[in-house]
Automatic annotation (TrEMBL):
UniProt GO molecular function: L-aspartate:2-oxoglutarate aminotransferase activity; pyridoxal phosphate binding
Subunit comment: Homodimer.
Cofactor(s) it depends on: pyridoxal 5'-phosphate
Residues covered by the Aminotransferase class I/classII large domain: 32-392
Enzyme class, broadest EC rank: transferase
Catalytic activity: L-aspartate + 2-oxoglutarate = oxaloacetate + L-glutamate
Record CDD domains: AAT_like
Swiss-Prot/TrEMBL GO biological process terms: amino acid metabolic process
Keyword set includes GTP-binding: no
PROSITE patterns (UniProt xref): AA_TRANSFER_CLASS_1 (PS00105)
Keyword line: Aminotransferase, Pyridoxal phosphate, Transferase
Protein name: Aminotransferase
Taxonomic lineage of the native organism: Bacteria, Pseudomonadati, Pseudomonadota, Alphaproteobacteria, Rhodobacterales
Gene3D superfamilies (alphabetical): Aspartate Aminotransferase, domain 1, Type I PLP-dependent aspartate aminotransferase-like (Major domain)
Amino acid sequence: MELLSRTLARVKPSPTIAVTTKAQELKAAGRDVIGLGAGEPDFDTPQNIKDAAVAAIAAGKTKYTAVDGIPELKQAICAKFKRDNGLEYTPAQVSVSTGGKQVLYNALMATLNPGEEVIVPAPYWVSYPDMVLLAGGTPVTVEAGIEQNFKMSAAQLEAAITPNTKWLIFNSPSNPTGAGYSWDELKALTDVLLRHPHVMIMTDDMYEHLAYDDFKFCTPAQVEPALYDRTLTVNGVSKAYAMTGWRIGYAAGPEKLIGAMRKIQSQSTSNPCSISQWAAVEALNGTQDYIATNNETFVRRRNLVVKALSAIDGITCPVPEGAFYVYPSIAGLIGKTSAAGTKIENDEIFATALLEETGVAVVFGAAFGLSPNFRVSYATSDENLVEACKRITEFCAALK
């Protein structure tokens, strides 16, 4: 009898976590390392949110809660969806979990049967395909390359749908590219989905409030109300409110689906942290002013990184509409050899050589399903970004 399950053999560890862990290990060993791998704002959690958590502790709100969220948080989530997206939900249609990742996992575990397919546009967040595999489904990737601004076309979506398609996972602004779908671009996709009533939509809106320049965020059920009953709208407090460690994600959707997700959660983790839930109530109900201030910083950092990387021969770096990532192509560097003698045969080798030779940690593009690229998170200080870009420039200039 084998110790480990066959299901585990279908998945791999998170590459983004692996890169961050490697960078931390090198730092602990005394190396001068700049980590650009983590998808985590470097801003502190706003004071009003921290105060709400302290008040919750002082008030003794430290016990078990309802499995999928306290009523006050569900009401705040309903108010958020109405305020920001024009979507009407009741608390019975809302689920709160330990981070957005658990929301997605619960939904897939509650719905997928062997042989059922989930369309995942690539580049994708690293966990989407593996969560589908863990749930017994089959991920179907649709590549959207740099030539189409990393956005899947309506024709590509139409071609990917089969009788076995259960879900489309949709993410805008995107991790890893920062690409955001306009209203018209999203409407073209929802028009396709209207023709295929058996397909559900799982929309990951985690970077909703990190939208820059003239880009206006929109979400599928908002663009096409006829898809409301087929859409699970997923969000959380980690990115916009700098609350990554608080671990609160949420979703709203069909009541039957939410009930099934509650059942999964009741037999796995049970309720999210009570203190984090009260903090999230304040995040959603309290002032939102700091989001615009933080976004000004992100835009400055984005422009800094795009300008520096675009100036490197062999690298193409599009300007993203949102999130805090850039996803440059290194197509012009493939086949060259580094100063230390490493031949750059693919983006994983590029990222490994960059870390070993310069101390800059990035995530290789193959982890996100599209090569040859790498992801830079610019959610760190200007000083770190300037120095990292300098090292990347020098590393690339030394390639022969």
